[in-house]
Every structure is written in C-alpha cells, then in structure tokens.
Fold:
Amino acid sequence: MSFVGRTSEWFSELGSSKWAYGAGLAYASVMAFALLTPREPGVDQMAPEPANYQVVPTPAPPPVEQLDQLDLSPSTQGNSGEQVF
Structure:
C-alpha cells in the first residue's frame, strides 16, 4: 500500500485522537517551515558622510567647595532621627 493510501485510510477512520495528532503534526510542520525558512535581512541604505576626527575638549567640571575642617557636631547634622553618642 502506498503512503497516500495509508494516509487517506488513517484519516478516514474518524477518531478524535487521530484528528488531534493530525492537527498537531500540521501545526508543527507549518511552524518548522516558518522558523527554518531563510529570510533576507532588511538593510537600510545610508548616504556616506565624511568622518569628523576633530577632538573637542570637554568643559571643566565646576569647582568643588573644600572644607578646612570637618564639623560633625549634632547642630550641623539633620533631624532625621540620628542617634548621637
């Protein structure tokens, strides 16, 4: 018996499990074809432009205020519930 004959006989016997297997096989075949088919990558054509090799210096950061002496007394600390020893 040929493959087509066996397949048609298989589908002619109405059984719910065979229809489910057939649908699963069809779905798997379509998904495998969709995932394995190569596609051409889309390439955007950009106009060439000359490269700019000019080095631009970055601006200096603002000066940081320096303290002569660090004051950690409770009067200079916040009122967020710190514990003073």
Q: What stands out?
A: The CA atoms of residues 37 and 81 lie 66 Å apart.
